[in-house]
Amino acid sequence: MDTNSKLSNNTAVILVSHGSTLPYAEEVFTEIKEKFINATGLEAEIGYMKVSEPTIAGAVEILKNKVDDLDRIIALPVFLAPGIHTNIDIPQLLGLDPLEVDPRCPDGNYPDEHYLSIADDVDFDGEIVLLDSIGPRDELLKIIDKRIGEALADSKLEGDVKTGVLLVTHGSRLNYNKEFATELYDKFEKTCDMPSGFGFMELCGPSIPESINKLVDENGLERLVVVPVFIAPGMHTTHDIPHILGFLDDHEHSHDHGHDHDHVHDLTPVEFDGEILYPQPIKADDILIEILADMVDEKL
Question: CB 300: neighbour CB atoms within 10 A?
């Protein structure tokens, strides 16, 4: 990680995040930012797509005030997989061209209330370099293994009971998220000595209940570790997935999180009466910080 030797003092980094109505995500991203600055020596700020502050345009203004003669901004999407946000929304919020046509609005004329319509324009005359999402890097397996170990340490069952692992992620209208999850799981399966699978929260399959029921039925499991492959805690990890797993007793689950679609999840019952362990997501793990620093270093 030799970031500083390649970057001038006139470069800064925006760590781009989605934003959340819950405080957990902002706390995690503040820690990610602080660790990133300490690891790289680069000036950095978080830029949220929506809901949270500062916005992406606001992050640019903060960096302009912090860095004298700022002439280059590295925009680093802290997203695991590419998708509509990384390929369409974030480029436009940065004042760049989208990487593909928006399936939500092919003509590019967004409704007046859409977040892309109401976002402030970025005011910056220098170069903006937009990096890719994190992708299915081998280093993520180390974090997943760490979360599995943490979960098993909290198990109430004996160590030799039949245990399986399910990796779960969000899902997307576009195929990128499924490609990410499939490639990451293929790598994980080769290193894991327990029965395993993966499932999606919504928008594509297999769903979490489908994957759990299949994994349990085929392997006679007594314990299951469900690993949320998400960066930060938020509504999905603290409410949606626990609801699907049967941890929450909600009568209905079709709600709007402030996104551009309603969340209607597969309410197929999870047919498993064994122990389900549900560890924390990735959060500000030191391995994640190394990945982010390496991404900047690899680009430059």
Answer: 15
Q: pLDDT of 216-263, one tens digit each?
A: 999 999 999 999 999 999 899 999 999 999 998 654 444 444 455 545
265 is a catalytic site residue: no
pTM of the model: 0.90
In terms of domains, do 21 and 128 share one? Answer: yes
Same domain, 64 and 17: yes
In the 8-state DSSP scheme, what is residue 296? H
CATH number for the domain harbouring residue 72: 3.40.50.1400
49 and 157 part of one domain: no
Q: Lay out the sheet containing 11-17: strands in order across.
A: 43-48, 11-17, 72-77, 127-130
Our count of domains for the chain comes to 2
First vs last Cα of the chain: how many Å apart? 11
Domain interval for residue 201 = 139-277
Among 18, 170, 239, 265, the one annotated catalytic:
170
Q: Which two tokens stand for residue 26?
A: 């902002």
